[in-house]
Amino acid sequence: MTPHADPQTGAAVKAADRAHVFHSWSAQGLIDPLAVAGAEGSYFWDYDGNRYLDFTSGLVYTNIGYQHPKVVAAIQEQAGKLATFAPAFAVEARSEAARLIAERTPGDLDKIFFTNGGAEAVENAIRMARLHTGRPKVLSAYRSYHGGTATAVNITGDPRRWASDNGTAGVVHFWAPFLYRSPFYSSTEAEECARALTHLEDTIAFEGPQTIAAIILETIPGTAGIMTPPPGYLAGVREICDRYGIVFVLDEVMAGFGRTGAWFAADHFDVVPDLITFAKGVNSGYVPLGGVAISAEIAATFDKRPYPGGLTYSGHPLACAAAVATIQVMADEKVVENAAAVGETVLGPGLRELAERHPSVGEVRGLGVFWALELVRDRETREPLVPYNASGEANAAMAAFGAACKKNGLWPFINMNRTHAVPACNVSEAEAKEGLAALDAALSAADEWVA
């Protein structure tokens, strides 16, 4: 589809938005949302005819791009056949979606509880863990994001938690490994892994193992910085959980369904958790859907004991039909393999090459189509380009970088002092190179702020 200008309609859309839409995570009077006219594949465009290469995948969820015809057709077909039905019934689209997801989860995580999104998946995973163990506490990492609902936002380890954290949610935070900004003064990945595991076990000892229901980790943290865990870390957490009878939860809401070049990021680390939360890429976000993949042991807890949780739209037929079609498209079109190949041969090498040329790039890290550039004022001291959780004038350097990206036709994913390269999993080599070229130009703006 070719973008065409229609400023009058765009102005009406913007006016209605500003009059009536209350946006998330925003000071309502300080935002100026772009009015989007359409999208297709890896691109979207506005009503002035400006087209952008989307290096955000929406919010890291359009894993097969926008408007894939097979998924759109599946939603249309399901709407004509059975648009909705209550969750207590067996429905073909729901059953098939669960089967296809269970086929791809690691180990024996073969039962699927459907939610409307990732935050609700986390809420229910934690509820399951607490009921299964009879324990109250949950351990989660700083530099993490698990959702905006009551429990999920308290588990979150970034500033979005602060306004809602009342200190009574039974959540204890700890430091996960992150060698570039190591809280353990490590100099190697092996040191970081060992020290992070010791820190976690010390935290458990001082909190009381018998009080801890679950440890939840993003397999590879997403919004917090795409920090791939060092070899052995997730296996070490698995062993600690087994030793103390703690439920191990991996949050794959962002990292799952091809994003890292595997169906689930856990596949890279040969680890099987007790619960996996998912959403986003399961159906490319075409209709809201999330869920929890549940191990046989935890599922058995609720064989004779009712599970006290549910949602009106759990396993909504339209959402599940979209999931079935998305998974089939990913298999037929080798989308997971494409994500792995583009990451290995285009994005990874290209981003590292940019780092060699731009002094504002402190580190490049990632897998598949899941990459982060850490932007700094000084490579030696690793001082971030902007302060932690900066806003307003303090965030001017990142604002300048973002404006430069958009000027060059790239819509960037920016969080704090980082930009993430997270295009669709079926992004082409040519599109990835186009994004790298736009980043190259925009990083010149970031370089101007280097000390």
Report on the architecture of this protein.
With 451 residues, this protein is α/β, with parallel strands linked by helices. The protein is 38% helix and 17% strand. The protein has helices at 7-20, 57-60, 69-81, 92-104, 118-133, 150-155, 189-207, 233-244, 296-301, 317-332, 335-357, 396-407, 429-447; strands at 36-40, 43-46, 51-54, 111-115, 137-141, 171-174, 212-218, 247-251, 275-278, 290-294, 361-367, 370-378, 383-384, 410-411, 413-415, 418-421. The strands form 3 sheets. Strands 4-10-9-8-7-5-6 form a 7-stranded mixed β-sheet, with helices on both faces. Strands 11, 12, 13, 15 and 16 form a 5-stranded antiparallel β-sheet that branches. The protein has a 4-stranded mixed β-sheet with strand order 1-2-3-14. Strand 11 (361-367) and strand 12 (370-378) form a beta hairpin. Helix 7 (189-207) runs parallel beside helix 8 (233-244) and helix 12 (396-407) runs antiparallel to helix 13 (429-447). It starts with 6 loop residues before the first helix and ends with a helix.
